[in-house]
Design goal:
Blueprint lengths: L2 E3 L12 E5 L10 E4 L3 E5 L5 E7 L2 E9 L1 E5 L8 E7 L8 E6 L5 E5 L5 H10 L4 E4 L13 E5 L6 H4 L4 E5 L7 E2 L4 E2 L4 H6 L3 H4 L7 E2 L7 E6 L2 E9 L2 E6 L9 H11 L4 E5 L8 H8 L3 E4 L6 H11 L3 H20 L1
Parallel strand pairs: 1-2, 2-21, 10-11, 10-12, 12-13, 13-19
Antiparallel strand pairs: 3-4, 4-7, 5-6, 5-8, 8-9, 9-20, 14-16, 15-17, 17-18, 18-19
Amino acid sequence: MGTLLSYGFAPIDLNYASYLLPKRDVLFNALCSVELSDDKVALNTGDDKGLWKMFEGDELFLEWDSVSKIDIQLDLLKADLEYSVVHSSDLLEADNTIKIRKRSKSRRALYYLLDNQKQAATQIAKVFKVDTIIEYDDFSEPLETEFETAVLFGFDFIPEPILSSVKTLLVFPVELKNAKILEQPRANLNHPFYSKYFIGASPRNNWPSPEKSNFIDPTSEALLQDGESILSGFISQSSQRIYMQGFEIDDVTHPYYTALKQWSFKSSSVNIGTNRPLGNDNYAVNLERFGDQILFGESSEIGSENLALAQVDWDNSKIALLFALLFVLIAVIFVKIF
């Protein structure tokens, strides 16, 4: 069965005859939440207060002491420069750094499907503040230019090259095939879209009322519905932000599309990077679970990089494979020498 060598931080679920762990104290790891809004980045470690340092490149930029929550105004950040925020609210450093980069003006494109749609596409481009208008082809070649946001006008599908390269997508059909006659289109006013991007109760209740529409993915976050069928909404696609509707645009100046424009700009100019959270230390749980099977080695200082490695790699059978490969290598060297 063998012996598993582990730092004991992650839960041990493998079946070995014994487990070699260091004698050490349980490590405390504070979890940091990150929330991005239109004007700031909010970082919060709950009840765990500590020292926070913000670096502009390699230079110390701001510092907060004995707090658990900080707000970083986006206006303070220079475009295209990386900022690092490090909190010292626990004993581990591996997941205590947040990277923030505010990009310069992001590029936005509108693709239209047919030549006779160009005039209408130009009006749509003005509303959504698009800087590049492109007529659709089959995208058989990779896109030469990467865009942060794309508006697809005249589409009821998303071309794969765009889907794989654009962060924010808005998809609007023009000619509807197999459209359904609608009975009572209504808005899902419980969705935060209406409270975030509409101003006042009257505009919030002013939504498009199409006479006919195709239905979109039933798992979408519904913005407009007809009965249980969804006419427009947000579709989950990994880390992308996708809006799609099944009806034609009747009036591009409608407050609904002004709100969609605001949504399309939200957070699109800021990148936030965090390390994989290590989670809580399971050392005590591991000791209790395996009891007499635990063998103790000498404890030594372990760096945050080694700790992360210990959690990801050491608590599984890869350690046995590593030793096996090592012995094979030694055998090959021995044969070649003699």
